[in-house]
Amino acid sequence: EAADKGGWSSFMAKEITEQPEAVANTFRGRVVDGRVEIPELSALGEERLREVDRIVIIACGTASYAGQIGAYAIERWARVPVEVQLSHEFRYRDPVLSPSTMVISVSQSGETMDTLMAVKYAKDRGVTTVSVCNTQSATIPRESDAAVYTHAGPEVAVASTKAFTAQITALYLIGLHLGRVRGTLSPEEEAQAASAFEQLPQAVAEAVETHEQIAQLAHWMADTRSVLFLGRHVGYPTALEGALKLKEIAYIHAEGFAAGELKHGPIALIDHGQPVFVLVPSPRRSPVMHSKVVSNIQEIRARGARVIAIVEKGDTAVLPYADDVIRMPLTDPLFEPLVQVVPLQWFALELSTAKGLDVDQPRNLAKSVTVE
Ligand code: G6P
């Protein structure tokens, strides 16, 4: 079994390091000469894709956060309203659906019962169903009108890592394909996204290199009882995912917040020494959001928070207010979650290890939940 782990102490560690290939294998063959083309979507017919006037993404757990991140990109490029719903909530709310609705399910295993039942529900109502799945010929892609596979390779650890970044990649490709077919994507945007994809594996590889720094941080924080995560825009669902990872494998109370929401309630939680991870957007490419996040950092710091800032390398604005700074490679703003989530994955893994827990097999959880 040690051989299967490729020399790592856990499958999760191995899978974190496999993310550069997981994302590359997912976009390979789908971005050619700066043009995004997903044959499985083309097979649905251009007319059908042009008629879509609303997209509902359904998923559970980590896949739902990939869905939330994907929603920003799909709306940006395809100009279709996108909402994200948990599969088990979607089915029981009597959802408003029409033949021009597209339901995109996201599932690593393709066997999650809640998501499968939601897909069947949508299909029975004549909705176009697209599956983003990591497992060839699983039930959900077989039940769907189109399957866009992520090529992350088998994921063994219960806590999802490489499937998550591959899911974001696949959803971005769907957004670009839809945008091109619908005429809402400018050639400049398509070229910019294609070049972001090209640089992505190297950027993710650099993010993987934060391991040693994060291991030290986790070592000092081994007796932490609660951790908060803050982000804005695509950084918000990334924060939610960082918190989920910590709950899942380190059994630590953790919550993610939209940074702008702080002053509307969560700031009351900030007390002396409270660790807070803050996902800081690029100062060059997102100057307005960057300055807003820096003010959020100042607000929590003034109330005693211990700030761990995840910043673009070269960003010095945060330095005076952060206790720890984790530097990320330069990426297009929409692609930030794909690098920023990596240190959060390492942090959960290292904290779990520091507490002597089983990283790959957390208590009470299953890799794939095949009951409702
Ligand atoms: C379980 C796993 C999670 C996963 C979720 C969705 O709860 O423990 O890690 O995110 O199911 O799984 P899926 O296979 O549908 O992506």
Write the layout of secondary structure elements.
Layout: H1 11-17, H2 19-27, E1 31-32, E2 35-36, H3 39-42, H4 46-51, E3 54-59, H5 62-78, E4 82-86, H6 87-90, E5 101-107, H7 113-124, E6 128-133, H8 139-143, E7 146-149, H9 162-182, H10 187-208, H11 211-220, E8 226-231, H12 235-250, E9 253-258, E10 275-279, H13 287-302, E11 306-312, E12 324-328, H14 336-354
Parallel strand pairs: 3-4, 3-5, 5-6, 6-7, 8-9, 8-10, 10-11, 11-12
Antiparallel strand pairs: 1-2
Helix pairs in contact: 2-9, 2-10, 5-9, 5-12, 10-14, 11-14, 12-14
The chain binds 6-O-phosphono-alpha-D-glucopyranose (G6P).
GO cellular component, one term: cytosol
Enzyme class: transferase
Domain SIS: 45-184, 217-362
Strand order of the largest sheet: 4-3-5-6-7
What is the typical, i.e. mean, pLDDT? 96
Structural class: alpha/beta
Percent of sequence in beta strands: 15-25%
Report on the architecture of this protein:
The active site is at residue 367. Its main location: cytoplasm. It catalyses: D-fructose 6-phosphate + L-glutamine = D-glucosamine 6-phosphate + L-glutamate. Keywords: Aminotransferase, Cytoplasm, Glutamine amidotransferase, Repeat, Transferase. It is found in: Cytoplasm. The chain is globular. Strand 6 (128-133), helix 8 and strand 7 (146-149) form a beta-alpha-beta unit. It has a 5-stranded parallel beta sheet, with helices on both faces. Strands 9-8-10-11-12 form a 5-stranded parallel beta sheet, with helices on both faces. The chain is α/β, with parallel strands linked by helices and 372 residues long. It contains 14 helices and 12 strands. The protein has helices at residues 11-17, 19-27, 39-42, 46-51, 62-78, 87-90, 113-124, 139-143, 162-182, 187-208, 211-220, 235-250, 287-302, 336-354; strands at 31-32, 35-36, 54-59, 82-86, 101-107, 128-133, 146-149, 226-231, 253-258, 275-279, 306-312, 324-328. The model has no long low-confidence stretch (mean pLDDT 96). Helix 5 (62-78) packs parallel to helix 9 (162-182). The longest helix is centred in the middle third of the chain and has 22 residues, at 187-208. The structure holds 6-O-phosphono-alpha-D-glucopyranose. Residues 60-63, 107-109, 112, 115, 158-160, 365, 367-369 line the site of 6-O-phosphono-alpha-D-glucopyranose.
